[in-house]
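Hey, I'm writing a tutorial for new members on how sequence and structure tokens pair up, and I'd like a real worked example in the thread rather than a made-up one. If someone can provide the structure for the chain below, I'll link this post from the tutorial.
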Amino acid sequence: MLDDEDRLGSAGRSREKRQNGTSGSDVGLLPCSGEWVFHFLPQVEVRAGAPAFGYAVPPRQFLTTLRYEERFARSLVLSAYILTTSAVASIHSLYGLGSKMAPPSVISSLMTLCLLVSSAFAAIVNYDFNISWVTAQPDGFSRPTIGINGEWPIPQITANVGDRVIVNVVNGLGNQTTSLHFHGLYMNGTPHMDGPVSVTQCSIPPGGYFVYDFNINQPGTYWYHSHDSGQYPDGLRGALIVKDPHSPYKDQYDEELVLTLSDWYHDQMPGLIAGFMSYANPTGAEPVPKSALMNETQNLDIKVEPGKTYMFRIINIGAFAAQYLWFEGHTMKIVEVDGIYTEAAEADMIYLTAAQRYSVLITMKDDASSNFAIVGSMDEDLFDVVPPSLNPNVTGWLVYSDSASRPTPALVDEFEPFDDFTLVPHDKLPLFADPDYSFELHVEMDNLGDGANYAWFNNVTYVRPKVNTLYTALTSGNLATNPAIYGDHTNPFVLKKDQVVEI
């Protein structure tokens, strides 16, 4: 389910601008300005149980500090390896091999140390991102677009299960704040790296720096994007892939391919959101996209080889429009949805809402004489008014032969997507028993005194708190369980760890 600012329809509903926290506490109520980097050093596995802590880094020391951390991490690996080797040698000398058993406490300590060493050897994956403006024209219309390192589409983030990912972000936009959210990752142990502005962090100001530093322990297909004021549809959105050497389907395909679907606007988000949140739009009709994209372009060629099986990681990185997707002449075998492996299920067409992800296996034909269309089609039922000029479709091709034609897709009389309610998780995890906590959310759309249309949960429309929600929780002591401290317009529900919740 999408957070408030993950959908264009919710992105502009805040009625109060965020004010920076000015209290300098240990957990990070630091001024959000270009002078300082608010930087956390997350838990290091060798220091299991130690709390994470934060510190501010002047920009000129930014790279030096980062390199120091990398050297520190490598020294921990080496030290843990030496310590484990010494421990094994000591046990051998004390107890011998096969003569008598070491005490359980010694064995337990050694096993713990071995696990720590195993964790320490996980890769550190670094990305250096300068977020800045570029010009792009994916559908033929040229417009300012938010890119990374001077390029758009933005880079894909790739890691393996167990890796530590470090993303060094510089906001080079000049005229907008920003942040990054890693959509679908649980961020267990590192909630301060999740990215939603006013929830887990301050926005990154123009010229500012931020280091996202977290471990990934879940495989699957994800994406990352800005989580600041509905910004990501202007281009700051891309795939995040977590590979799994122990995937139950690892021996059933030859190659992985990433396929994104998205909607595209010709106007920038600040203007669109202002018009959306306006007395001139009392019904709250969302802006309709100008076109649909596939891998952030149109008329996409995907080169394939006869007889091979490909795993397509499919992500809807759009702002608003859901899309139907099908591969003409080919059958999909669904094996993962939103990071969860499923029992294999065959499908001719799937339906992806904004932010939804699928992994499917597709086996190519043995005959390489023809190419086949890939079709994405926006769900027009979501649009209040469908402009006559709108083409809801985007087409790509499975290209077996460069010399063969790219056929025009066949007309579809009716959309009949796969029913994802029939999917079964591969691990057979049973449904949770009776919930510990149950509540209802009543959703309404209504107008306030300014004439604009707002969304409401239980008669409350969201307003950004003056202090980020996470920082409030971390600095409030026993009051952290009191919903009132999080603001009158944040709709807080305070839960206990590991509770089963029914909404």
